[in-house]
Amino acid sequence: MAPNSQTILVVGGGIAGISAAIEAAEAGADVVLLERSPTLGGRVAGLNRYFPKLCHPTCGLEINYQRIKKNKNIKLFTMAQVATVEGQAGNYKVTVKTTPRHVNAKCTACGACSEAATSEIPNPFNYGLDTVKAAYLPHEMAFPMRYVIDGSVVGTPEGDAIKSSCKYDAVDLEEKEKTFDLTVGAIIWATGWKPYDAARIEPYSYSESPDIITNVEMERLAAHNGPTKGQIVRPSDGEPARKVALIQCAGSRDTNHLPYCSAICCLGSLKHAAFVRQQYDDSQVDIYYIDIRAHDKLEAFYQKVKADSGIHFIKSKPGSIVVGEDGRPTVCGEDTLGRDIYANAYDIVVLATGMEPCSAREYRVPVEVEMDDYGFIVPKTGNGSGIFSAGVAQGPNDVSTSVQTATAAALRAIQAVRG
Amino acid sequence: MTANMAATIPGQSARKYDLGFARWVYENIEGGDKLSMCMQCGVCSGSCPLGTEMDYGPRKLFMMVRAGMKDAVLKANTMYNCTSCYSCVVRCPRGVPVQYILQDLGRAAARMGYQEAKTTDNARFAKAFIWSTRKFGRTDERLFTFKYYLSFGLGEAIKKAMANMSIAIKLVKTKRMHLGMPHRIKGTKDLNAILAKAAEIEKREQGI
Amino acid sequence: MSDRKAGVYLCKGCGIGDAVDMDAIEQVAVSEMKAPLCRQHDALCSDEGLKVIQDDIDGGEINQAIIAACSHRVMTDRFQFNGTQVVRANLREQVIWCHPANDEDTQMLAADQVRMGIAQAAKFDTPQPWTEGDFNRRIMVVGGGVTGLSAAREASLTGHEVLLIERADSLGGWAAKWSRRLPHRPPYRDPQDNDLGALVSEVEGDSKITVMTGALVTRTEGMPGKFTVEITRGGAAVLETVGAIVVATGWRPYDANKLGHLGYGASPDVVTGVELEEMLANGGIRRKSDGQAPKTVAFVQCAGSRDPEHLPYCSSVCCGVSIKQALLLVRSDPDAMAYIVFDELRTPGTAEEFYRQAQEAGVVFIKGKVKSVGADLTVTVDDALLGEEVPMTGLDMVVLATGMVPNSTNPDAEAEADEFQEQLKADINPAVPIPSAGFANGGEGEEPQEGFPWPWKDKTPTGGSILNLQYRQGPHIPMLADGFSDSHYICFPYETRRTGIYTCGPVRRPMGMAESADDAAGAVLKAIQAIGNAAEGAAVHPRAGDLSFPKIGYDICTKCRRCTVECPFGAIDEEEDGKPVVNITRCRRCGTCMGACPVRTIGFDNYNVQMISDMISAVEIPDEFAEKPRILILACENDAYPALDMAGINRHQYSAYVRTIPVRCLGSVSMLWVSTAIERGYDGAMLLGCKSGDDYQCHFVKGSAIAKERMSKVGETLKSMMLEEDRVISEEVSIADSARVADLIDRFAGKIGELDANPFKGF
Question: What is the 3-state secondary structure (H, E, C) of C59-94?
């Protein structure tokens, strides 16, 4: 039976979803790309640099955004997510729910609304490490380049002021949640991941000290467009963080939390060690680990980080992190190679929290998919299926592997829609 | 099991990584079947409030089990320093019941006649505790403490008692320690019957 | 285009009209630049604004729209008018957002932006795509192992004919030898059936796939859509035409004979993981010495991998493979014991569950490094946790988990001529030291440390090429360090320096069967894109869809060969007399050839030497007494230019003396542009490009490195003109440098301000 629709729906606008959408579109397919948040880029947009090259994710995003802008085959909806799916391969009826941005397509990104806004909200881009005006551009690399108005100002004098500040009639405070329908032939789930909730690892005292942070927060701290403009400092007092502990497997490889290995955290922490060492000459970084998993050629990155005299590797899963009398976080445990019991104080402690697929807890995939015990959507191959997964929705993948899976998913989706 | 029987347990050879002892532990020690899941991360030793008091932390002890170092394992004081706080059990990423294994290893060592099992502070303390329990049906702080001190010999016992006199006086003042005739519970006989039954069950479970 | 009718549209929105005198700008456009039409609007991107432009187009008033508004990076989709050329002049991000309002210098900058836009439009032609001849849609897959079989099948399922070439006499590759495969489906606990046989049958029964076994590719020429390959089989050669090529030549085990210290060769019962696998597939594990089933087996991890003397990288799959083999051993014989001696146990992702299964089954894991394996099978382990060297005795068998060597060359083939051996050397060192403190703050820190050379760097893969490419730049597919034919770009794993040729599977990166099959699908999609784009005359990534291509003026060409040498993609070949020939569908449109050409006779319809020179010349140069220096910035359009835009978004202020022109790549920068600027009276010039070197980020591989090289010669030219050398500089600017770039500009402007004005002003 010939498929009814040759359109491919890509759910999720992170690096996997972007890649799947573009790769399919550049092979001639019609693509609808949905993103739940106001801008594309997902988790990678919030990274300071990639391992192992220490290059900026925005560089590749810029290329990809240019590819999207120039490609007429891609339709993009932000602040949109899938509500229901019915039908079968070649003919899925999808209901999409959109949440209000309160800013329409007339927005020129001039910024007048932000100037008119007076209240501040926790900045989602910086994981709440700072605040942003209630009318805001998600970040300087936002795509689409369009402002967002937080729902909290709707119906307030501030909201009215914001509305009247816009010369282009782009503010729509009346906007409500909406739904619309799509008919598509294949769907690629690229719904990505969430950092594992560090507060659940109770002995690590994440909630007890502002100087105990997660790896994704470290990325924002080190980023030029982060809350500190790239200065790696103690969140508690803004002093330079010269002595830093990086705690591997904070949640991962742990049957009490995430039983699988998140695969990227070792390399992420090697990168964080480099961030600190790049910034402060007299810095010291201690990496607490079980196994350093720098697979394939990434071994070179491990070896070169290891060669830095300011970076130490301690083979130990710390027992606890306590806040010392001086307020400094202190890492306690046993060095398994030396068998010393240690209690080391640091300026900041970074928990290398693992990746939890959004499909595990965050939302329910509204269509029958094969899912493993962890919430990863098992990739499908071969004939008959119209539902595919890519990126971390599929498994704990790094960026390159996510793009790899996205490209493969794009091909298989094309096979599905072309019958 | 007697000291002689200990010789029949594998692991007597000097050979490292003789799996015999590890297998014996897997099969005979409570929770031992989970010991193979240990990935030597160290969270148990690092979480142990008495880790610094131990000859080896639990992690290293488990590694020695695997390496076939039977004597060193059974001579260690590790098992007797465990206070059953369960931090290790709760935090172990591999679900190893560390505390149970330690307890049972300690019992096994005692049964096999390893002197360390009898001479560590904890063993002496436990002995005095069980003496008091059997005799009075409860702990008598004064007598049971002195009984514990006596296990070091009379001279040492007096020294220890004198050294702790100020604490004792405070305990008495705050009515935490009782002077005069020891209090007893009513059914010490019944209690001893229960304890005897428990010992019997234990023996049966050990297959002796 | 002879009858250009350019309309200039000045947008006053977003505060432009408040910060700049737009009437004055209109005067410049109309009176000075002779624009036939100029309109102002309050918001050009609004529906009403767009209608103004569309009406002019529909009325035949214009066929080129010069839109002076925001950056070309935004509103790209709005400012598209079918068939009408659009040129953007950036008045927002790079004028009013980073320079003071209603200021003389800001006004002059805005006027110059419009002048440059008009000059650009005058030399801008709509590219006509090159689509000459027939384009073949068939995909050749080289290698008939799990990767190649998967690629062939995926291509066929997508409707493409496939030519599958396998060197051996039968399909299947290494994977055909495996008894069971690593678990890749939930619950990830047990070795899974090796289903490769089914895949082989599918391929063999697929009418779209032509299989050639016992065959080698002995020659490849042509370009995407038009490759001609010579396939030699049993001494006879045939020619075939294909549209794109997927290289899935896989791997080979590291030569265990080099691992004498691990006992290989000393005892027949020291075997490799591959040998053990063959035993498992053929009736079970037996000692070679006496045919007995071993009771106690030690697995030695990283046998040759992660070892500077052997393979410096991690072969990724060996931990999983040894776990699988140990599990199969202890499950088949309850008395058997298995030890796995490892340094770092690497079971990433869901493979962690497989590790737990092995532990549960009683496999013993020992963290340490194996120092030696004796002929009596005594394995001496430097046990990291015991902290001592421990001899393991009483073993019946020792298994060496040897690593993967990529088949980026054919080790059995004869090596190509010496001149091509250089191509096998890695051009980057992955162990280049991380720059020390200070780097992030603008390169004022210490010199980078020496670091250590990556052990593989000076070793070269042995043997001959896989495809024997008849390219000016040699027969090999470029490879990175360690001999893998991978992409250097994290975001773009299928990036290739040989357009239309995509590698996948373990020749790209060590990987297992499941990932190889997925990787094959990805590579096939890229091959399909390459074929489709070639047929339409369009570029592939990163300038996807670009219809322009380099044209060479042969009447002027001196056959100097610079373009053929410098093309990062090997797109330009030479005829015998040195005449350059562009293989257009190989070209990625970076313009490096254009920048290389000393006689400036290479150009694109919409991007050429004259166009940029005219833009440079269009800028008004105040006389030397005005004390208003002018600085030309040539900025990489993907990183430096967006960084400048973001400097605007963040309202970072910087000198208004700069005049910025985006370029496709610094590699496309003609030195003529710099000399034109100096002759026209600019006081300085800055080239802003991507990071070069080992961790290069240049999207066209070497563009920024080449530009640096060329720049080193500019100094001489300046000296000969009696000018200071440091009037022209080159800086690496990343896309994240929006704050730093403003600072760089100000510092440079400050330096230029200290120099005397360029004496060529007003000449």
Answer: CCCCCEEEEEECCCCCCCCCCCECCEEEEEEECHHH
The pair of structure tokens assigned to A354 is 């693992």
pTM of the model as a whole: 0.94
CATH topology of domain C607-763: Rossmann fold (3.40.50)
Q: What is the pLDDT of residues C484-512, one digit of tens each?
A: 999 999 999 999 999 999 999 999 999 99
Check CB contact of A122 with chain C, cutoff 8 Å: no
Does the CB of C407 have a partner CB in chain A at under 8 Å? no
d(CA A256, CA B93): 6
DSSP class of C604: B
Q: Of C540, C626, C621, nearest to C584 (Cα)?
A: C540
Out of B39, B51, B95, name the one closest to residue A290 (CB). Answer: B39
CATH architecture for the domain at C1-126:
3-Layer(aba) Sandwich (3.40)
Residues 105-144 of C with CB under 8 A from A: none
pLDDT digits (tens, 9 = 90+) for C137-194: 999 999 999 999 999 999 999 999 999 999 999 999 999 999 999 999 999 999 999 9
Count the domains in chain A. Answer: 3
Residue whose token pair is 């678990």: C183
Residue pair A267/A305 in contact (Cβ under 8 Å)? The answer is no
Q: Is residue A328 part of a domain?
A: yes
Distance between CA A193 and CA B152 in Å, rounded? 61
CA distance B45 to A333: 7
Q: Is residue A106 part of a domain?
A: no
Say yes or no to pLDDT of C724 above 60.
yes
Give the number of A-B residue pairs with CB atoms closer than 8 Å.
67
Out of B46, B91, B93, the one facing A316 most closely (by C-beta) is B46
CA distance B192 to B199: 10
Asked if domains C1-126 and C551-602 share a fold, the reply is no
pLDDT > 70: percent of chain B: 91
A172 in a domain, yes or no? no
pLDDT class of A342 with cuts at 50, 70, 90:
very high
Contacts of B91 in chain A (CB under 8 A): 203, 256, 319
Above 80 in pLDDT, residue C232?
A: yes
Contact of C482 with chain A, judged by CB distance below 8 Å, is answered with yes
Distance from CA of B48 to the nearest CA of C (A): 19
Chain C (57-76) residues lying within 8 Å, Cβ to Cβ, of chain A: 70, 73-76
For residue C220, which of C507, C421, C411, C466 has the smallest C-alpha distance? Answer: C466
DSSP-assigned letters across all residues of C377-432: -PEEEEETTTTEEEEE-S-SEEEEEE-EEE-SSBTTSPP--GGGGGGGS-SS-TTP
Confidence band for C444, pLDDT divided at 50, 70 and 90: very low
Q: Is C364 on the interface with B (CB under 8 A)?
A: yes
CB contact under 8 A, C364 and B36: yes
Asked if the C-beta of C88 comes within 8 angstroms of chain A's C-beta atoms, the answer is no
Strand pairing category for C85-90 and C64-69: parallel
A203, A337: one domain? yes
- Measured CA to CA, the distance from residue C60 to residue C37 in angstroms comes to 12
Task: Write the residue in C359, C360, C393 that is nearest to B15 by C-beta.
Answer: C393
Q: ipTM score here?
A: 0.97
pLDDT in tens, C596-610: 999 999 999 999 999
CB A125 within 8 A of CB A138: yes
Buried b (16+ CB within 10 A) or exposed e, C177-215: bbbbbbbbeeebeebbebebeebbebbeebebbebbeeb
Question: Per the domain annotation, does A222 fall within a domain?
Answer: yes
Measured CA to CA, the distance from residue A412 to residue B185 in angstroms comes to 78
User: What are the boundaries of each domain within chain C?
Assistant: 1-126, 139-250+407-425+460-536, 253-403, 428-459, 551-602, 607-763
Helix (H) or strand (E) segment spanning residue A342: strand A341-345
> How many B-C residue pairs are in contact by the CB < 8 A criterion?
43
